[in-house]
């Protein structure tokens, strides 16, 4: 038997060395079970104890009776507890030390990288010298665990965890609840309202269920619902502006629209069109203004005449 970091083994208590703890043996090698790593009463010489093998904070092989949240070769979703700009992320694994998710496993784009509190799907492996590190779990590890989305999910709002973020979109494992592990989904870039981090919790709407059971998602409401919400957001913004005017219109670049309002340019134009049809706003060049009372009454009269025409 070998003392392999990341595995749980049953070892014999060989001797006690105060003030350190107990040395455990597999018949060939020994490992220290520190007093601080005991659970329950102290064992006796020749007792068998079940322990997890890992490397302590000084990179020495060690044993603990605590339960690790992840074992070698397994997959789990672990919480980010700290971020180091040169090393990577440190994950909670239920032990006295944290598990490193190396910088090489993180997205190149900094806005897509996890922050403390995010939860990342990872597997456990050894680095070049045998220490335990995490590896980001991608489609290869996740796809065998997912199930096909039921047809009833169409247009429903779901929640899940981001497993990968790219410029073209973000991949998500949608919560499976009591049904199973989860459903694989994609939020295409146009359907994101902002950049999504690896491990971020996200709420999105199921827009399409594919033949393979995966889903397409959107962070926005359906057009008819979103148009009203977007119009309310634009109107509230205008009312807070000096003179009730803003330097945004149909001519404004899409990136500026998304940065200011968190919506696509097409959604912005739909909402603006609604406000203009209702006579609430007007456009002058590249600016949008709250309509004056005279302009509002004129628009209302136009609407009345149109209604009268429709009635004929």
From TrEMBL:
Q: Region labeled Disordered — which residues?
A: 290-312
Q: Which Pfam families match?
A: CvfB_1st, CvfB_2nd, S1_2, WHD_CvfB
Determine the domain of life of the protein's source.
Bacteria
| Gene3D superfamilies per UniProt | Nucleic acid-binding proteins (2.40.50.140), Winged helix-like DNA-binding domain superfamily/Winged helix DNA-binding domain (1.10.10.10)
- Signal peptide (UniProt feature, chain positions): none
For this protein, what is any one GO molecular function term? nucleic acid binding
All residue ranges annotated as the S1 motif domain in the record: 155-220
InterPro entries from the UniProt entry: CvfB_fam (IPR014464), CvfB_S1_2nd (IPR048588), CvfB_S1_3rd (IPR048587), CvfB_S1_st (IPR039566), CvfB_WH (IPR040764), NA-bd_OB-fold (IPR012340), S1_domain (IPR003029), WH-like_DNA-bd_sf (IPR036388)
Family statement drawn from the similarity comment of this UniProt entry: Belongs to the CvfB family.
**Protein's UniProt name:** RNA-binding protein
Query: What high-level taxonomic lineage is stated for the organism?
Result: Bacteria, Bacillati, Bacillota, Bacilli, Bacillales
């Amino acid at each position: 038997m070998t003392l392999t970091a990341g595995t749980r083994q049953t070892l014999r208590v060989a001797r006690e060395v105060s003030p350190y703890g107990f040395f455990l043996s597999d018949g060939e090698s020994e490992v220290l079970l520190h007093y601080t790593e005991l659970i329950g009463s102290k064992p006796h010489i020749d007792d068998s104890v079940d322990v997890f093998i890992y490397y302590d904070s000084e990179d020495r092989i060690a044993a603990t009776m605590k339960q690790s949240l992840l074992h070698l070769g397994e997959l789990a979703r672990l919480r980010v507890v700290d971020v180091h700009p040169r090393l990577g992320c440190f994950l909670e694994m239920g032990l006295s030390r944290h598990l490193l998710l190396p910088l090489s496993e993180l997205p190149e784009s900094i806005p897509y990288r996890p922050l403390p509190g995010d939860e990342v799907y990872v597997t456990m492996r050894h680095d070049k010298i045998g220490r335990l590190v995490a590896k980001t779990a991608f489609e290869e590890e996740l796809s065998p665990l997912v199930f096909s989305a039921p047809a009833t999910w169409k247009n429903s709002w779901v929640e899940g965890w981001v497993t990968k973020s790219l410029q073209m979109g973000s991949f998500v494992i949608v919560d499976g609840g009591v049904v199973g592990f989860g459903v694989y989904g994609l939020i295409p870039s146009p359907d994101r309202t902002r950049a999504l981090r690896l491990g971020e919790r996200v709420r999105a709407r199921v827009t399409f269920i594919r033949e393979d059971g995966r889903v397409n998602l959107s962070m926005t409401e359906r057009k008819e619902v979103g148009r009203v919400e977007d119009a309310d957001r634009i109107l509230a913004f205008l009312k807070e502006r000096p003179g009730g005017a803003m330097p945004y219109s149909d001519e404004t670049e899409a990136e500026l629209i998304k940065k200011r309002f968190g919506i696509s340019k097409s959604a912005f134009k739909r909402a603006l069109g609604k406000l203009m049809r209702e006579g609430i706003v007007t456009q002058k060049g590249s600016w949008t203004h709250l309509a004056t009372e005279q302009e509002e009454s004129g628009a209302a009269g136009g609407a009345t005449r149109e209604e009268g025409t429709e009635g004929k």
